[in-house]
Write a structure and sequence with these properties.
- There is one protein chain.
- The protein is an alpha+beta fold and 201 residues long.
- The chain contains five helices and four strands; from the N terminus they run ααααββαββ.
- The strands form two sheets. Strands 1-2 form a two-stranded antiparallel ribbon.
- α2 runs antiparallel to α5.
- Pfam families: DUF5683.
């Protein structure tokens, strides 16, 4: 029985202390975080698009443009790969039917059997293989040029969009037109003109 009283005497101060801690926690003021408005800097958008295509559009919060940029680069990459695979294939056959400068004793065959993608096999001579090889190489190179143009267009789009998003379209822009008269000492005459003044308030 004494043990119960002893425990009660020990636990009462702990309960009072816990109540004080709870009250002190409740009395702390709540600090609200102030969020700053999102500011777009055109230079940042341009640099981000130069590094990774589509990053500038993300920075400008134009998320709908991301599938367009990604689709353009994925499509051009697949076209370049398709042409490069066929260029490498037909170049090997072209090497077989062409004369070798490093080996003058090599006698090339007149034609070589080339399997096409649809499963048919055709006999092609050196001129046909040269035409095919040059065509696939040209298409592959044009696709690489298209990738560079798409990258440039991506950078220009990010820069222009950032400038348009930061352009001031408020009613505080005013234009003042004043006539002016200046004296020209060289011709010793008066010259009239207009002065245009933009005020950004």
């Amino acid at each position: 029985m004494y043990f119960r009283y002893f425990l009660l005497v020990l636990l009462i101060p702990l309960g009072l202390h816990a109540k004080d801690v709870k009250d002190s926690v409740q009395l702390k003021p709540v600090v609200k975080a102030v969020s700053k408005p999102y500011k777009i800097i055109p230079r940042q958008a341009t640099l981000k698009s130069l590094m990774i295509p589509g990053w500038g559009q993300l920075y400008n919060r134009q998320y709908w443009k991301l599938p367009l940029v990604a689709g353009a680069f994925v499509s051009l990459g697949m076209i370049a790969n398709w042409n490069d695979v066929r260029y490498a294939k037909y170049r090997e056959y072209y090497y077989q039917v062409s004369t070798h400068v490093d080996d003058p004793s090599y006698k090339p065959p007149t034609t070589v059997a080339v399997p096409y993608e649809d499963g048919t096999i055709r006999d092609l001579d050196v001129n046909q293989l040269k035409r095919l090889t040059d065509g696939y190489r040209r298409n592959r190179d044009y696709t690489y040029i298209g990738m560079v143009l798409a990258w440039t267009l991506n950078v220009v789009d990010a820069n222009v969009s950032a400038h348009l998003k930061t352009f001031d379209v408020s009613d505080d822009i005013s234009l003042k037109v004043k006539p002016t008269v200046d004296y020209q000492p060289f011709s010793q005459s008066l010259v009239s003109g207009l002065t245009l003044t933009f005020n950004f308030k």
